[in-house]
């Protein structure tokens, strides 16, 4: 059993990108699918696919490269099980002066920091990506 499945997800993505893999397989959950969807929409990964294996399921994330360098230059877990980080709409930090994104868990679902500011929502900052 993993104590932090989201940290496991971003570690697999980070390690796969640094090793030059085409894709990585991650145990599935609704939150991981929502995070993969945001990474796809924001252009950090090429694609993702939910695969039914008869158990929990798998999310296969196809990594994106530009001139043989990974599109994700950095990905970091902010809120951890031992220390949750919640921010109001005015306190959501910018990642690399707006060049990166934060992924938040809000009362309206998982979304980027840009969308949360538009909707006037704060929440738990899950991941920073740049």
Short description, anyone?
This protein has 130 residues and is an alpha+beta fold. It is built from three helices and ten strands.
Task: Please explain how this structure is put together.
With 130 residues, this protein is of the alpha+beta class. The strands form 3 sheets. Strands 6, 7, 8, 9 and 10 form a 5-stranded antiparallel sheet that branches. Strand 4 (65-66) and strand 5 (69-70) form a beta hairpin. 26% of the residues lie in helices and 34% in strands. It is globular. The protein contains 3 helices and 10 strands; from the N terminus they run αβαββββββββαβ. The chain has helices at 5-19, 30-41, 113-119; strands at residues 23-27, 45-51, 58-63, 65-66, 69-70, 75-77, 86-87, 101-106, 109-112, 123-129.
């Amino acid at each position: 059993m993993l104590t932090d499945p989201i940290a496991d997800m971003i570690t697999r993505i980070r390690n796969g990108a640094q090793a030059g893999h085409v894709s990585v397989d991650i145990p599935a959950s609704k939150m991981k699918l929502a995070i993969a969807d945001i990474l796809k929409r924001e252009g950090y990964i090429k694609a993702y696919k939910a695969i039914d294996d008869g158990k929990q399921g798998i999310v296969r994330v196809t990594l994106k490269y530009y001139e043989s360098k990974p599109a994700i230059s950095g990905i970091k877990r902010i809120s951890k099980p031992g220390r949750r980080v919640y921010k109001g709409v005015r306190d959501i930090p910018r990642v690399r002066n707006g060049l990166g994104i934060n992924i938040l868990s809000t009362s309206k679902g998982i979304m980027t920091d840009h969308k949360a500011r538009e909707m006037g929502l704060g929440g738990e900052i899950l991941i920073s990506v740049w």
